[in-house]
């Protein structure tokens, strides 16, 4: 990049077309269109149809898990999971370093959210802080496999067993990742995936709950369909809602699932390219601690001179739409500000992380240019901060 002026100071942006973090992967478009056409021609559009069945079976095979319940989105999946497993009004321990859907799903179902801190290296729940927050009011622990890194599954499982409470995982980021040679989707009482458009495997909107517990799977299937018991039944045993995935969404998922290995390969290639270039004392490329889908490339800005906020502004001016996911952390959102939580590691991690573009639509050449901008920023952070402050004062 040399002495190139930055777009934030008026130069031409490095990219004409914006480079996004979550551009949807839709590789086999003809296959997707053929599947969708078939659904529309069949006139079987929703309500537990053949495509939903096939997608559920394909996912069970892929994750080697006994039961998969496809749902309309990950948020509803979380709501069904807690309603199926946790007594009304109980406290649920969750991280604050997560997408707002995680605590919101709990509050929406009238549970009390108790935030626990995370680990500085892995960014997932710190079991020691979880242990400190368990009381007789605790109804469940909800871990989040942030960035696809599995939670500390063993210590959390021990804690849940010791206190006789369910352990649930928000696995929105962790489709096709592994822990201890087993696919995520097999742990805790159940795990909840998101297949939103911005996830590396998507059904446009969608999600799934997976479990090895047949009884729980049956309950979840009923809750997903207004509470109707079994197929073609007119009896409603418990309270349910409409959380069904449509046939069109499932048909897109079936086509995309075939390409999942290609998506992971390209994400891994992209991740390695970022790692190769982004070597600097003020930077750390987050190391996903497992067999990963690498759907998020996260950099951490380390030191007083550098700022993830400023780097985001610098990149955005260049048309690189980097994201400060989970910053501010959920507990600082207005809707959670009624209570004060001491979460020092969460604050630290949220302050220093930035997510960079990856996925099937991002080329290695584009990654190299992004890396040049990032490196230029960290090498000139102090000058850039001064110049921005001057512009602010005189602008
Ligand atoms: N738990 C966790 C830990 C989660 O991360 C999420 C969702 C959930 C639970 C809930 O699952 P769902 O109910 O959503 O299934 C996204 C997603 O909306 C959300 O699904 C995701 N997590 C969250 C982390 O990120 P944004 O704010 O990034 O979306 P948006 O619209 O700003 O898009 C990001 C980038 O992607 C943009 O630069 C443009 C590009 N884009 C986006 C869409 C939607 C496209 O190119 N095409 C598109 O169709 O939220």
Give a verbal description of the structure.
It is a single chain. This protein is an alpha/beta fold. The protein folds into two domains: 123 residues, Aspartate Aminotransferase, domain 1, CATH 3.90.1150; 229 residues, 3-Layer(aba) Sandwich (Aspartate Aminotransferase, domain 2). The chain is 39% helix and 14% strand. It has 13 helices and 14 strands. Helix 2 packs parallel to helix 8 and helix 9 packs parallel to helix 12. It is globular. The mean pLDDT is 95. Bound molecules: ligand T4K. Ligand T4K binds next to helix 3 and helix 4.
Write the layout of secondary structure elements.
Layout: E1 19-20, H1 29-42, H2 50-63, E2 67-71, H3 74-85, E3 91-95, H4 101-108, E4 112-116, H5 127-133, E5 138-144, H6 153-163, E6 167-170, E7 178-179, E8 182-183, E9 190-194, E10 207-211, H7 214-224, H8 247-258, H9 260-277, E11 283-285, E12 297-301, H10 308-317, E13 320-321, H11 344-352, E14 353-356, H12 364-379, H13 381-394
Parallel strand pairs: 1-13, 3-4, 3-5, 5-6, 6-9
Antiparallel strand pairs: 2-10, 7-8, 9-10, 11-12, 12-14
Helix pairs in contact: 1-8, 2-8, 3-4, 3-7, 9-12
The structure holds ligand T4K.
